[in-house]
Every structure is written in structure tokens, then in C-alpha cells.
TrEMBL record:
Organism this protein belongs to: Dactylosporangium vinaceum
Protein name from the UniProt record: AAA family ATPase
Record-linked SUPFAM superfamilies: P-loop containing nucleoside triphosphate hydrolases (SSF52540)
The organism's place on the tree of life at top rank: Bacteria
Gene3D superfamilies per UniProt: P-loop containing nucleotide triphosphate hydrolases
Length: 210
């Protein structure tokens, strides 16, 4: 399963993608555009055809999908630089694909930016330069979520529409992982094996246990 979650800076896409992946548990990979481009590659934006990040993300997603992962791709992912790659990924993927766009006004993104729990060195002027209104991919089934959607509502929509919350994990870990098998045999149960908190609901805080 392939999920693409896009939106402007401070639209809430990263928080939603991380929470969706956490609730899904093991067998779901998260590719964050900012980490791939800024941390792994240390590449500036705006390089046009010289940019390495789109192709790097493309081959990474394809490898993970072939390995059996459900993959969430998250980022601003402007259509100008990433649209052709993403549309081709969706076309080529034989399994289900789901695209979500978080449509948040510029003023609201600035307000959210200033309220970040972990501030980042970005100014409102920087954000204005990146902002593109309703920069949707234009693919069939693309779901647009407006700024009135809370984080919980956004995550719930992503999980419910895609079916990720109930999708089977097909990757070696946990499907064929000795440590996961030992945890399950010891009474940890399926949720513990998947790396999901078992304190009442899938949304509880917690991390991987094997």
C-alpha cells in the first residue's frame, strides 16, 4: 500500500504521517521528504532537473514496496519538482494508492509554526516563499483535508480511507522475525509484536518492543 501525504510547511502533514505510521505499527515505512533531502543528502531545494532528492525518494519507495512494506511518503513535495515522480509511482504501483492533501491557509500555517513544540529556524518570509495554495496532484481519489480537521480527525481519515489500520504486515519483521515471534510466544500478543502500544487503544503512546 502506498500513501502520499502532502501540504505546505506547518500544515500538520508530518505530525499526521508520523502518528499514522505509529498506529499502523511494524511493516509500515515512513519517508519524510525533509529528512531525505536535508539530512541524508544535504541538498538545497530549487535545483530543478539537477535535484537528486526526487529520484532518491522514488527508488527508495519502490524498493520498500517490493520488500512488502506499506509506505507513507510525506512532505511539501511541490508538484513542480515532485509531481511527475509521484504520479508515476502511483501509476506503476500494482497495489492500492491513497493521496491526501492538507489544505491550510498561509495565515494558519504561520500560527501553527509559531506554536511548534520543537521550533525550527524558519521565518514567515521563508514560509511565504514556499507556500503554494492547493497544490494538489490531481490524481483520482485524492482527498483534500481542510484546516478545520484536527490532528486526530486527519489521522483517522488517513487510516480509515486507506485501510492502513487493518492492513496485514507483510515484511520480514514482524512476519518472519524471531524476536517478534518470541515476544508473541511469551504473551506479548499481536499488537506488541507490531510495535503498537496496548494500553486500551492503538493511539496510546509507546514504541517498538522488539
Amino acid at each position: 500500500m502506498l500513501l502520499v501525504i502532502r501540504g505546505n510547511s506547518a500544515s500538520g502533514k508530518t505530525a499526521a504521517a508520523r502518528e499514522a505510521r505509529r498506529r499502523a505499527g511494524r511493516g509500515t515505512a515512513l519517508i519524510e521528504q525533509d529528512h531525505w533531502r536535508r539530512v541524508v543528502l544535504r541538498e538545497h531545494g530549487g535545483l530543478g532537473d539537477d535535484a537528486v532528492a526526487p529520484g532518491f525518494i522514488d527508488v527508495s519507495v519502490r524498493h520498500l514496496l517490493r520488500a512488502g512494506y506499506h509506505v507513507i511518503v510525506e512532505g511539501i513535495l511541490h508538484t513542480g519538482g515532485y509531481g511527475p515522480m509521484l504520479r508515476q509511482l502511483i501509476t506503476d504501483h500494482p497495489g492500492p494508492s491513497h493521496v491526501f492533501y492538507l489544505d491550510v491557509s498561509f495565515e494558519e500555517t504561520v500560527r501553527r509554526h509559531h506554536g511548534r513544540a520543537e521550533p525550527i529556524p524558519v521565518t514567515a518570509d521563508d514560509m511565504a516563499g514556499w507556500y503554494k495554495a492547493l497544490d494538489v496532484l490531481g490524481v483520482d481519489g485524492e482527498m483534500v483535508l481542510d484546516e478545520d480537521s484536527t490532528l486526530e480527525q486527519t489521522v483517522a481519515a488517513i487510516l480509515d480511507v486507506s485501510g492502513l489500520a487493518i492492513a496485514a504486515s507483510l515484511t520480514p519483521c514482524p512476519a518472519r522475525c524471531p524476536r517478534c515471534a518470541a515476544k508473541q510466544a511469551a504473551g506479548g500478543g499481536v499488537l506488541a509484536v507490531l510495535g503498537v502500544e496496548r494500553s486500551g487503544e492503538l493511539g496510546g503512546a509507546g514504541g517498538p518492543v522488539c
